[in-house]
Structure formats: structure tokens, C-alpha cells
Specification:
By secondary structure, this protein is mostly helical. It contains nine helices and no strands.
Amino acid sequence: IKRRDPGKGLILIASQWQQLEPWFADLSDEQLSHLRSSWPGPVTWLVPVPRDFPVWLRGIGFEPALIGFVVATPTLARLIAVPLVTGYAERHRAIRQAIVVTAFLTLGGFAVLGLLRTPLAVVAMLWLVACAWTPIVPLTDAHALRGVKHYGINYGPIRLWGSAAYAGGVLAAGVYGSYVAGPDLIWIIVA
């Protein structure tokens, strides 16, 4: 956007140490201790981009500054898509249908995204995919809560096992991802 030289790195601003931790994965304990000694405060640190952050975008040749822009795209899309899609589904009593449609659009969108390599095409397609994908969680929560109310069941175990399945899936994808080349990691998402 600002045509900043990608070789100059990505500027991050954080209010909490935890927001920066993913960027410190490749630092030694001594380097981390040095950074912590000046936190919080008005300081600037220059640290290398972690080797695995985000692997797919680095694998297709994106520079850190561009990766930062791409990674922010779903958040921006979410701000627009979630209220529009969930509101429409609620008004038309079509929550279940909206889940199906957004899931298929997400699948197709990620499949197309996996074929793209140019920055503008990746950002545009990711925007469209995020507009379909980000409403899925609120829609499924609304659908589940309607079922809980209708059938009079306890939502706690449903949420617990759903979270456990998600965590297991993420762990399995992480293990599998350690054997896949960076440019091909998008296909784990598609699967």
C-alpha cells in the first residue's frame, strides 16, 4: 500500500507481549531476555521473520510486508461479512442453508486460492473466501443454540467435544504440514 521496501521488514505495534510471541519463535533465550528487559516501553526491535510464519505465503515468494497485509485481509472481511451474512440468514430464517452455502463457497474459494501466486489475486481471492468463511462460526453457533433450545439438551458437552475435535484437527494438520512444502500447504486447508 505504502510501497515500503519489503527488505525493510514488517512493522508491528503491540499492547501485550503475547501478541509478539509468534514473531520470536527463532530467538534464543538470551535474545528474548534482552527484549523482555525493555518491555513495555517506547522501543523498536529488529527481529528476523520466523521461518514458519506463514509458511504458505513465504513459500510462494511473498515478502514479510506483503504477508502482513495478506494476513490482515480476513479480519477486514469479517467486519463486513459477518453482520451482513448472519443478519440476512436470521431475517430469512435460513441459518442452516447459509451454513451450507458458505461452507461450499469457502471450499471452492480455498481451492482457487491454492492456484494463485500473484499478490493482487491472492488478496482479492482471500477477501472473497473470508467473506464466506468468517460467518460460518457464528452461524453454526446460532444453529446449535437453536437445537439446544428445541431439544432441551446441555450445550456444554457439545461445545467441549467440538473444541476437542478442532484442537485434534489442528494438531494433525500441523504434523502433516511439517512434511509438506510451503507452497503446497494451502491444500491442507482445502482438505
